[in-house]
């Protein structure tokens, strides 16, 4: 097993950031002193999400406490009720505990009680350690726990990422893991955040952080197929402009929509994928790799993650489709995008009203895409790739025989 960082993937990220602090993420800037309710310093955009009345919030907390105390019963007999409550939004005071139950981190912690301590005390692969240290200051630098380079936030982030690189040495460290780990640390201690990261990487997004990124490329094809069903007009426009999913969805998914990469990084990673597979997967580069944790307003990120950790990766597909349908809903917008450049710029600058939690969740629930559609498209894309691989193998065998004959 290789025990190294994902160099080929991470170079596409790191070579364009030049070690500088990312000044803005999720509409926040660290130039102002005020701290908002999420811990971000200097909010640049107004919070358009409506705060729940205290009475409703307390009522929901009591329901969630009852559910957490009887978790196995609810998950086996009353899962639809769990899903319904996740879609309404988990009460902030119970979000950390609920996420751990939803993703299975609680199971990991109960069954591997000393594993994190063991990994935390190990030295780690030098190359992974070096790559992780380079990325620490880039993760939500405007959040109060990550502002200071010598603070506990960056220290705990290093511990989590190093521990995961040892836990799964085949994958090692991939830069897109960092914003997910950082987002988890905003809600819970290091050990709990580590096991949530393990669950997300191993169960929710398996293969997303492996060298070659084949899993994310398959999901890019699936997204494009689902978009064709959900909005044939937008699908045709993107296909005509050769704007394929990888250039926008990769960071959306791999970072769970929590952060936004510099545009030069998005293009660099898109070129890496083009070279590796001969195709461009345009817009998904920014969405899927970070599971939208780098893209949406923070209140929306939390609502998306509430659903994502309950229902799985299908939520990310739905968020991506809703965003695309909203952005290109008007014929005028399509007319104003005569080339790949304008189309990608439109995707990069999504109007704020389309990213607000109430609007986005409402549109996700309305979307006419179900699990059967996703499974059918998944099977179709897997079969398509299998056929391509078989054809390539046959061609290689033919070429090999020709060389021997000559």
TrEMBL record:
Keyword Methyltransferase applies: no
Coiled coil: none
Annotated Polar residues bias: 1-20
UniProt keywords, alphabetically: GTPase activation
Domain Rab-GAP TBC: 89-312
Keyword Acetylation: no
CC terms in the record's Gene Ontology section: plasma membrane
Region (Disordered): 1-29
Domain of life, source organism: Eukaryota
GO molecular-function term, one example from the UniProt record: small GTPase binding
Protein's name according to its UniProt entry: Rab-GAP TBC domain-containing protein
Source organism of this protein record: Oedothorax gibbosus
């Amino acid at each position: 097993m290789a025990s190294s960082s994902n160099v080929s993937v991470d170079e596409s990220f790191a070579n364009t950031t030049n070690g500088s602090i990312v000044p803005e993420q999720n509409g926040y800037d660290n130039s102002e002193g005020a701290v908002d309710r999420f811990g971000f310093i200097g909010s640049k955009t107004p919070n358009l999400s409506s705060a729940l009345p205290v009475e409703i919030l307390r009522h929901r907390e009591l329901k969630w406490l009852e559910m957490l105390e009887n978790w196995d019963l609810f998950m086996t007999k009353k899962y639809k009720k769990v899903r319904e409550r996740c879609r309404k939004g988990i009460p902030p005071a119970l979000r950390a505990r609920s996420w751990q139950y939803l993703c299975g981190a609680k199971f990991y912690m109960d069954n591997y009680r000393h594993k994190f301590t063991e990994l935390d005390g190990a030295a780690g692969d030098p190359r992974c350690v070096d790559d992780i240290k380079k990325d620490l200051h880039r993760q939500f630098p405007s959040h109060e726990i990550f502002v200071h380079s010598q603070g506990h936030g960056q220290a705990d982030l290093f511990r989590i990422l190093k521990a995961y690189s040892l836990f799964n040495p085949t994958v090692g460290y991939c830069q897109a893991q960092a914003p997910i780990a950082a987002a988890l640390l905003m809600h819970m201690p290091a050990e709990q955040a580590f096991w949530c990261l393990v669950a997300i990487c191993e169960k929710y997004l398996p293969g997303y952080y492996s060298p070659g990124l084949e899993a994310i490329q398959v999901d890019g094809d699936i997204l494009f197929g689902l978009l064709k069903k959900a909005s044939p007009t937008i699908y045709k426009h993107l296909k005509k402009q050769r704007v394929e999913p990888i250039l926008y969805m990769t960071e959306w998914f791999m970072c769970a929509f929590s952060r936004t990469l510099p545009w030069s990084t998005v293009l660099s990673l898109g070129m890496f994928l083009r070279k590796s597979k001969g195709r461009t997967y345009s817009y998904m580069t920014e969405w899927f790799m970070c599971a939208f944790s780098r893209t949406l307003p923070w209140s929306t990120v939390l609502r998306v993650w509430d659903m994502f950790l309950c229902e799985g990766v299908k939520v990310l597909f739905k968020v991506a489709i809703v965003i695309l349908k909203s952005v290109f809903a008007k014929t005028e917008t399509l007319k104003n995008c005569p080339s790949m450049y304008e189309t990608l710029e439109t995707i990069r600058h999504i109007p704020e009203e389309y990213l607000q939690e109430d609007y986005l969740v409402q549109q996700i629930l309305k979307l006419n895409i179900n699990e059967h559609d996703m499974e059918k498209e998944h099977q179709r894309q897997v079969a398509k790739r299998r056929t391509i691989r078989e054809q390539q193998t046959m061609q290689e065998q033919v070429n090999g025989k020709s060389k021997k004959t000559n």
